[in-house]
Amino acid sequence: MSVVVGMAAQSTLGNVIAGFSLVLYRQIRVGDTIQINSPLGVVTAKVEVISLGFTQLINADGHELIVPNSVMMGNSIIRLSRGL
Q: Is the pTM of this model over 0.85?
């Protein structure tokens, strides 16, 4: 039972730790326009929310992308413009 709980918590804890890194080191900020790899290819989007578990992005079509912070920290991100 504890092995199952530990395996389930691993991704959640990874997202939280990555969230702390994003908030602490401020590699990206709310308002930045970035490019990141997604399952659909390279996506250009504006950062709307950075929380401890996920980052919320809005693309040019107005679609909302919810990206786990472990994915944000594990991919190369290109900052196209700095937010205010």
A: no
Pick from 53, 44, 65, 56: which is nearest to 13 by CA?
Answer: 53
Query: Mind spelling out the 3-state secondary structure of the chain?
Result: CHHHHHHHHHHHHHHHHHHHHHHHHCCCCCCCEEEEEECCEEEEEEEEEECCCEEEEEECCCCEEEEEHHHHHHCCCEEEECCC
Q: What is the pLDDT along the chain (84 residues), one digit of tens a residue?
A: 677 767 777 777 777 777 777 777 788 899 999 999 887 789 999 999 998 889 999 999 999 999 988 888 888 889 999 986
Question: CA-CA distance, 48 to 42, in Å (whole number)?
Answer: 18
